[in-house]
Task: structure prediction
Amino acid sequence: MLLNYITWNPSESLIDLGFISIKFYSLCFLLAFLFSYIVVKKQFEKKNISIEVLDKLTIYVFLGTLIGARLGHCLFYDFAYYSKHPLEIILPFTFNPFRFTGFQGLASHGGGIGILVSLYLFSRKYKMNLWYLVDTVAMVVPLAGGFIRLGNLMNSEIIGKVTDVSWAFIFVKEDMQPRHPAQLYEAICYFLLFFLLYRINKERKKAVGFNFGFVITGIFIVRFLVEFIKENQSAFENGMFLNMGQILSIPFILLGLYLLFIKKKQPETVASAQRNKK
Result:
């Protein structure tokens, strides 16, 4: 019977030399930023904004994503533990016993908030139009999210519930039961959202806030629905009708719908954006 399913047991490392290893998750994280950089660069070139500005923006968004995602996990999903071990929020190892763990535990909701904060700080410092930045970066959020979920798949984490569908994955590192490949479902949906939005941006002029509204509505509707076939990430979610991921998704969905259908539409402007200085 198990032969009908996909046995999933990949190595977590692409290269492992003992003293150093390159993990697939880290590679997916880097690919997310690399392809996002390329897409945003094309958008900046259309507005004649300098590459130096993009490089600085990349640093802001990278740090905002990492800090926000880490804090989101520690506060929303494992507060009981990290409230007693606050240093482990910012340190990549545990003390008792001492063990290098890396930054295990990142929450996409926290990452989204971190990106918005980083864009606000960047717009204030470099006198750029905040809505232009938000809409431009929003284009690549589903692209990056797709790569991150592929990294989760390679780590056999954020698994789905037990099922008997023919495409079920048997996660050998988990419990050898056929489960929904929830990470793959999300990755496919996010990539589709990216290509759809990229096509829309090529074919018509968009209003301020459209990209951001489209992205957060699409991503968090997908997240809300896929959570029904995911295993809960924390024990306290067991028995809840909606888990923490779904509860946190609702405000993002409502904000996205407001931007798409209620907010007064205005033409896009980058009047306050810095221009390339020769």
Notes: The chain has one domain: 23-92+101-261. The chain has nine helices and seven strands.
